Amino acid sequence: MSPPAPATPPSDYESALAELEQLISRIESGQLPLEQLLAGYERGAELLAYCRGKLEAVEHQIKVLDEGRLRPWTQE
């Protein structure tokens, strides 16, 4: 049995989130064979780590822009 092809990295946060949502729907359906379920779980973990990393990077940028002071967000 050959090893699975490496998954392509997401192009951006929105596409990663969309893929993750679709993946969760397929997993929750209960209709996937065990091998696909495991592969889906692994891909989901990769996508989740990618999304978390992007969110942490944005949070860091906001802290830098606000000179380290977190301010409550208000819609103007």
TrEMBL record:
Reaction it catalyzes: Exonucleolytic cleavage in either 5'- to 3'- or 3'- to 5'-direction to yield nucleoside 5'-phosphates
Top-level taxon of origin: Bacteria
Location (main, coarse): cytoplasm
UniProt keywords, alphabetically: Cytoplasm, Exonuclease, Hydrolase, Nuclease
Enzyme class: hydrolase
Entry EC number(s): 3.1.11.6
Family matches, as Pfam families: Exonuc_VII_S
Alphabetized SUPFAM superfamilies for the sequence: XseB-like
GO cellular component: cytosol; exodeoxyribonuclease VII complex
Subcellular location: Cytoplasm
Example GO molecular function: exodeoxyribonuclease VII activity
GO BP annotations, alphabetical order: DNA catabolic process
Protein family according to the UniProt entry: Belongs to the XseB family.
Assembly and interaction partners: Heterooligomer composed of large and small subunits.
HAMAP family linked: Exonuc_7_S
NCBIfam families associated with the record: PRK00977.1-5, xseB
PANTHER family reported for this sequence: EXODEOXYRIBONUCLEASE 7 SMALL SUBUNIT
Function: Bidirectionally degrades single-stranded DNA into large acid-insoluble oligonucleotides, which are then degraded further into small acid-soluble oligonucleotides.
Protein name: Exodeoxyribonuclease 7 small subunit
Lineage of the species this protein comes from: Bacteria, Pseudomonadati, Pseudomonadota, Betaproteobacteria, Burkholderiales
Gene from which the chain derives: xseB
